[in-house]
Amino acid sequence: MPKGLHHLEQTVLGWLPNSWQVRLRRAHAGHKDVVRGMVWLTLFVMAAKGVAAIKEVAVAYRFGTGETLEGYLLAFNLATWPVSLLFSVMHFVLVPALVRQQAAPDGGHAWQRQVTTWVWMAALAVAGLVATLLPLLIRSGWLGLAPLAREAALAAVPWLAPVAVLGVLASWHACQLMSRQRHANTFLEAMPALGILAAVLLMPFATVNVLLWGTAAGFLFQWLLLIAIVRASSLPVMPALGFARPLDPTLGRSAAWLLAAQLLMSIGAVIDQIILAHLPAGALATFGYANRVMALVLTLTATVTGRALLPVLAGLCPEESYAVARRWATWLFGLGLLGAVLIVVSAPFVIEILFERGAFTADDTTQTANLLMGMALQLPFYLAGTVWVQWALTSPGQARTLWWAAVCSVVAKLTVTLGLITFAGWQAQAVVAGLVAATLTYLIPLLARRRFR
Questions:
Q1: Is the confidence at residue 63, as pLDDT, over 50?
Q2: Separation of alpha carbons 332 and 305, rounded Å
Q3: What is the rounded CA–CA span in Å between residue 52 and residue 281?
Q4: % of the chain beyond a pLDDT of 90
C-alpha cells in the first residue's frame, strides 16, 4: 500500500474510540484486508456512481423515455453483453490466478503477457460479432422496436463495435489492478458515463449521435487511464509474441464452467430486454431507470464486497476462507434486509428528485418507483450470494456449483416472468418479479454446497 494511504488509514483509526481500535487490531488479518478494500472501494464506487447518477438525470431531461433512447439502450445492452460476460469470467478466474502468480520469480509478468494476447483476440472477436450479427438482429424485427427506435439502434452499431474492443481490454487491465488490491480502476468505470454527460451538456439536441459520441469518448478515456495506472504499478501491458496457453487444465475447466454459467445468466438478461421491448412503449426505458438506481445500491454493496473479498479469500487456506466467508455472508444478509426496507420507503421520493423534470413526467415517476420497490426485494439474497460466490471461486471443485446455480436462476426467472405476463397480465412488473425469483433461486445451490473440501 502507498505510504500516503497507509498514513491516512492510521489517522482515521486514531479517531475511533480505544475499544474499537483494540478490537480492529485483534481482528483476523483476512477481515482487516476485506474491510480496508471495502472502504476504498466504497469511496471510489460512490464517486463513480455519483457521476453516473448525474448522467442519468441529464439523459432523462433530454430524452425522457422516448424511442430514440430505447433504441440506443437496447443496442448498447446487446453490444456490451459479451463484454460484461467476459469481464465476469476474467474477474472470477484470473484475479485468483493473478494472486497466485505473484509468487513466480518474475511476479507473473510473462504469464500476464500471454493472457493479454488472448484478451486482444477475444476483444477483436467480440467486435466482429457485434458488427455482423447485431444489425441482422435489429432488422429482423424480433426485438419489437418501433421504427424510430430501430433506426437509432442501427445507427449505434458502427460505434459500438470499437466500444466492445475497448471494454474487453479495460476489463483485463482492471483485473490486473484488482489482484493487487489496487481499486482505483473502480472509479474509472465512470468514464463512459462522464463521456455521455459531457456530450449531453455540450450538444443541445436529442439525437442518438449525442449518446454515441459520448459513449465512444468515455470508453476510450477509461482504457487509456487504465493503461497508465497499470504501467505505473509496474505491471505488463503489451501482449506476448505467440499464442502460448496461459491456463492449466484445472483452471481451464473452471473457466469453462464459469463461462457457461455467465453465458446462461447473460442470455437471461438479454431475454429480459427483448421481453421489455415487446411491451408497451416506455416499459424498457422505465425499467432501465429503476434498474440504474438499483445498480447504485448493488454496486455500493455487492460489487464492493466481491472485489474486496476475492483476492483476500484466494490467499487464505480453505478453513480460514470458509470462516471469513460465513461471517461476511451473515453480516451482509442483515444489511440487505435493512437496505430493502429503506429503498421501498424512499423509492417514490428518490425517483422524483432524480428524474422528474423535462420530458420525464409524474406518471413516469410512479411507474419507475413501483419497479424499484420490487427490485429492492432481491437485495439481502443478492448480498449473501455474492459472498458465497467469491468463496466458491477460490475453492477447488466448486465452479460446477455456479453452473447449476445459474441453471436454477434462469429457469426460475423465465417461469415467473412469462407466467405473470401470460396468466396475470403483468407488464414490466413481471420482469422485476422474475429478477427477484432468480436471485433467490441462485442462492440455493450455493448454500447446499457451502463447505470446504
A1: yes
A2: 9
A3: 24
A4: 27
Contact 427, 421 (CB under 8 A): yes
For residues 203-239, b (16+ Cβ closer than 10 Å) or e, as one string? eeebebebbbbbbbbbbbbbbebbeebbeeeebbbeb
Torsion sign (Cα): 257, 259, 260, 264:
positive
No. of helices (H) and no. of strands (E), the chain: 17, 0
Give the CA dihedral 257, 258, 263, 268, nearest 10 degrees. 100
DSSP label of 240: P
Q: List the one residue out of 383, 250, 392 whose CA is nearest residue 321.
A: 392
Find, among 46, 296, 54, the residue nearest to 194 by Cα.
54
- What is the pLDDT, as a whole number, of residue 100? 78
Q: How far apart are CA 110 and CA 108, in angstroms?
A: 6
Instruction: Output the pTM of the full model.
Output: 0.71
* Digit-coded pLDDT (tens) for 296-307: 788 777 777 777
Residues in the chain: 453
- Predicted confidence at residue 452, as pLDDT, reads 39
pLDDT tens for each residue of 279-299: 777 778 888 888 888 887 887
**What is the C-alpha separation between 401 and 68, in angstroms, rounded?**
41
What residue type is assigned to position 390 of the chain? Answer: Q
Of 182, 192, 240, 198, nearest to 216 (Cα)?
192
